[in-house]
Specification:
Radius of gyration: 20 Å
Strand content: 15-25%
Shape: globular
Structural class: alpha/beta
Distance between the termini: 44 Å
Bound molecules: NADP nicotinamide-adenine-dinucleotide phosphate, ligand F7E
Number of helices: 11
Order of helices and strands: EHEHEHEHHEHEEHEEEHEEHEEEHH
Largest sheet: 7 strands, parallel
Strand order of the largest sheet: 3-2-1-4-5-6-11
Number of strands: 15
């Protein structure tokens, strides 16, 4: 019999990549899906259609009893907790729910494992995040964040994730659980939700090229992110749970780029050379060839507090896990724009 893995967040970006990877590695893959769903529900159908190898179990991260039943029923060897309300901007609008799901939901998962008597056998992965660091201004100005850098979250999401991070470490230390945290910097790709900036850009660029949309509206163009490809990052998650000892690992590229650079490369991919005109909220991006405005600023997308720059140092993951990213920054932008051109055509 193969190993059994249980994933939460299978309908999200990383969940889909991870389910496929674990299936290819020979695991029996189980996934928690939430809501009052029946087999006829469209979301249930969609997962079944795209990932027929996944066994679906109904449970919400807020529901300790359902999670405990799932653990008792499945008896997983590995548990990957990817479920969260993960949008930073949204977390300012609904901070209480985000604290419950993204923060306390992690405790529910750990308790469910304990209540099912699996704390000595099941290995646990927690999806921690670079949003816990908050920005180089608060830390070490000249070097990327590694596992020992100080935390200074700048959003209700970041604060909730920090709780999840520390409660996972606490269960590791208190109950000797094989519980690891992957501190992942931004990772993107064709499965990224359209509410995140990279997918919003790649989708809009494709639609503008195809004449289906006039322009793209964005918020802060000058924040910097360390962007990698999601497919590469799920391999790192799996490697963490294959170690003899649990631990915390940063997964990042070691490069950082502005939203502005992402836009320039994405538009170039469809033959549009961007020229920037104006400043602040009046800044626009113009198609050099036609003089048409294809990008403008909408302050609605600004956040009450921003993380200006994220840059990670993946040395530990590279050395200990042998983890290596395959897709570079221009390759990531190209992959996303090409995908959306095909999707929108
Ligand atoms: P995502 O696309 O936003 O997916 C989130 C998943 O969580 C969805 O499957 C969603 O299910 C599920 N979920 C939300 N609330 C739930 C609840 N109450 N009960 C059960 N499931 C619930 O996120 P992602 O980009 O794949 O990221 C995966 C994890 O890594 C998240 O925890 C995220 O915070 C973290 N992370 C992501 C990044 C990144 O750059 N992508 C970086 C660092 C850390 P529904 O479909 O039902 O909404
Ligand atoms: O924003 C700026 C925005 O929402 C990136 C999540 O997966 O990664 C993600 O969080 C930057 C920010 O991702 C728009 O202000 C400008 O500076 O794509 P994002 P994020 O906030 O970095 C971390 C590691 C996670 O853990 C999270 O779960 O882009 N930005 N204009 C915009 N952002 C959005 N969403 N929309 C805009 O129009």
């Amino acid at each position: 019999m193969g190993k059994k893995a249980l994933i939460t967040g299978v309908t999200g970006q990383d969940g889909g990549h991870l389910a496929k990877l674990l299936h290819e590695k020979g695991y029996d893959v189980y996934a928690v899906i939430r809501g009052q769903m029946e087999a006829s529900h469209p979301r249930y159908q969609e997962v079944k259609e795209k990932m027929p190898y996944v066994n679906l179990v109904m449970a919400d991260l807020l529901d300790l009893s359902a999670l405990t039943r799932a653990m008792q029923q499945i008896q997983p060897d590995e548990v990957y907790n990817l479920a969260a309300i993960s949008h930073v901007g949204y977390s300012f609008r609904d901070p209480v729910l985000v604290a419950d799901v993204t923060g306390k939901g992690v405790l529910n998962m750990l308790e469910a494992i304990r209540l099912a008597g699996l704390e000595k056998t099941a290995r646990f992965y927690q999806a921690s995040t670079s949003e816990m660091f908050g920005g180089l201004d608060y830390n070490r100005p000249d070097k990327g964040y590694d596992e020992d850098a100080a935390f200074h979250p700048r959003s209700p999401y970041g604060v909730a994730k920090l709780y999840g991070h520390w409660i996972t470490k606490n269960y590791r230390e208190s109950y000797d659980m094989h519980a690891s945290c992957g501190i992942l910097f931004n990772h993107e790709g064709e499965r990224r939700g359209p509410e995140f900036v990279t997918r919003k850009i790649s989708k809009a660029v494709a639609r503008i090229k195809l004449g289906k949309q006039d322009k793209l509206e964005l918020g802060n163009l000058d924040s910097k992110r360390d962007w990698g490809y999601a497919g590469d990052y799920v391999e790192g998650m799996w490697r963490m749970l294959q170690q003899d000892q649990p631990g915390d690992y940063v997964l990042a590229t070691g490069e950082t780029h502005t939203i502005r650079e992402f836009c320039e490369i994405a538009f170039k991919e469809v033959g549009i050379d961007l020229e920037w005109q104006g400043s602040d909220v009046d800044e626009i991006g113009v198609d050099k060839a036609t003089g048409k405005t294809v990008l403008s600023i909408n302050p609605e997308f600004f956040r009450p507090a921003e993380v200006d720059i994220l840059l990670g140092d993946p040395t530990k993951a590279e050395t200990v896990l042998g983890w290596e990213r395959q897709v570079d920054f221009p390759g990531l932008v190209k992959l996303m724009v090409e995908h959306d051109l095909n999707l929108e055509a």
